[in-house]
Amino acid sequence: MQQPDDKHTNENQHTNPRLSSTTPSATASRKQGIICNLPAPWIPYAELMRLDRPAGFYAFYIPYLIGLSYGACLADPIPSPTRLSTLGGIFFIGCIILRGAACAWNDNVDQEFDRKVARCQNRPIARGAISTTQGHVFTAALTLAGAPLFIFLPVECSYHAVPITILFGAYALMKRITNYPQVVLGFPFAWGILMSCAALEIHPLGERFRVPTLSLFVANILWTMIYDTVYAHQDIKDDVKAGVKSMAVRFADSTKTLASTLAAIQVGLLIVVGWQADFSLIYFLGTCGGSAVALGSMLARVDLKEPASCAWFFHRGFWYVGGSIVVGLFGEYLARLQGLEVPQVGAFI
Fold first, then answer.
1. What's the pLDDT tens digit per position in 228-241?
2. Peptide linkage before 77 cis (omega within 30 of 0)
3. N or C: which end of the chain has fewer CB within 10 A?
4. Cβ neighbours of residue 261 under 8 Å, at least 6 residues apart?
5. Most distant pair of Cα atoms in the chain: their distance
6. Does residue 321 register a pLDDT over 70?
7. Residue 147 vs residues 37, 106, 153: alpha-carbon distances, Å
8. What's the average model confidence in pLDDT over 181-187?
9. Region 278-306: what's the mean pLDDT?
10. What percent of the chain has a predicted confidence (pLDDT) above 90?
């Protein structure tokens, strides 16, 4: 139920038509954002893909940007900005499709839970605008729709697509059997880093790059655990009643302590990345320093008892934390591309 979609705003203003006679009909729609002008029969499917709620898209796309900028720093020869932009565009389209398929699958298997959670009651399958069968057919169609993109990528990328797809499928079931579905969710997101490196024909888990790559991979998993646990606090009361398991439910009274600990480890791992990959001060200031400041300030500010504050953390975290990581790595790439002599951290120790 915590498949990242967007802020809770407006979504919890609707109740389930199957539960209340005062609500809109099953085909009613919020009609927000870019989906407003679509033909009426298409709108529930656009909602199912979360096309009207872009924030969750960043959760899918930013790891690919991290992977591209990281891989560009390791590559020899250094890839051109044109190549990076082209790959970024391919992954942009792919993440729209991937996110749509993941959300469609998640909403279908979670429909009974969603009808018990105020924020999720008006989702298309939960409210009856799309049937279970239609939802599964749509999920399969979206999954297949992403296949042609691999024509433009090295064959190794297709090998990474398999575990990503399986893990996103498994995540939707985890909240029934474990209090740690956020851990499972972190893996397919972080796997985008490996696919991006493969797109640049880098072997990130080879002996030379194994330690920094695994450190970056785990750091992204921890980041997912942090923001999705905070995000899940929006629904914590309903989740407890519905029997949904999550880290928010498990650590309800100590989430900030847990998140702060995970954030400290995340920043530590990002430092390991720079140290092992021999990155310059640009990376350490942008990626490590920027993400440390962003995580610290946001965790201090967020109010877990206020759904709007949890939604703010989720939305802004991609810009502040994710943005810091990407900016630091991309800055490192540009410095190497231009042949700039930037001091290494070791020079100051």
1. 999 999 999 989 98
2. yes
3. C
4. none
5. 70
6. yes
7. 28, 20, 11
8. 97
9. 97
10. 77
Give the span between the Cα atoms of 315 and 215, in whole angstroms: 24
Print the SS3 string covering the chain: CCCCCCCCCCHHHCCCCCCCCCCCCCCCCCCCHHHCCCCHHHHHHHHHCCCCCCHHHHHHHHHHHHHHHHHHHHCCCCCCHHHHHHHHHHHHHHHHHHHHHHHHHHHHHCHHHHCCCHHHCCCHHHHCCCCHHHHHHHHHHHHHHCHHHHHHCCHHHHHHHHHHHHHHHHHHHHCCCCCCHHHHHHHHHHHHHHHHHHHCCCCCCCCCCHHHHHHHHHHHHHHHHHHHHHHHHHHHHHHHHHCCCCHHHHCCCCHHHHHHHHHHHHHHHHHHHHHHHCCEHHHHHHHHHHHHHHHHHHHHHCCCCCHHHHHHHHHHHHHHHHHHHHHHHHHHHHHHHHCCCCCEHHHHC
Contacts of 264 by beta carbon, 8 Å cutoff, 6+ apart: none
What pLDDT sits at residue 189? Answer: 98
Q: How far is CA 68 from the centre of its chain?
A: 16
Residues 6+ apart with CB under 8 A from 273: 70, 212, 215, 216, 219, 279, 287
What pLDDT digit, counting tens, does each position of 147-157 carry?
A: 999 999 999 99
pTM tops 0.70 = yes
**Residue 315 confidence (pLDDT):** 93
Give residue 33's pLDDT: 63
- For residues 102 and 114, give the distance between their C-alpha atoms in angstroms, rounded to a whole number: 16
Q: Is the confidence at residue 4, as pLDDT, over 70?
A: no
Residue 189 identity (one-letter amino acid): F
76-90 residue pLDDT tens:
999 999 999 999 999
The dihedral over CA atoms of 38, 6, 49, 17, expressed in degrees to the nearest 10, equals: -80
Contact 281, 346 (CB under 8 A): no
38-61: average pLDDT: 91
Tokens of 160: 């990474």
CA–CA dist 153, 144 (Å, integer)? 16
Instruction: Tell me the residue type at 69.
Output: S
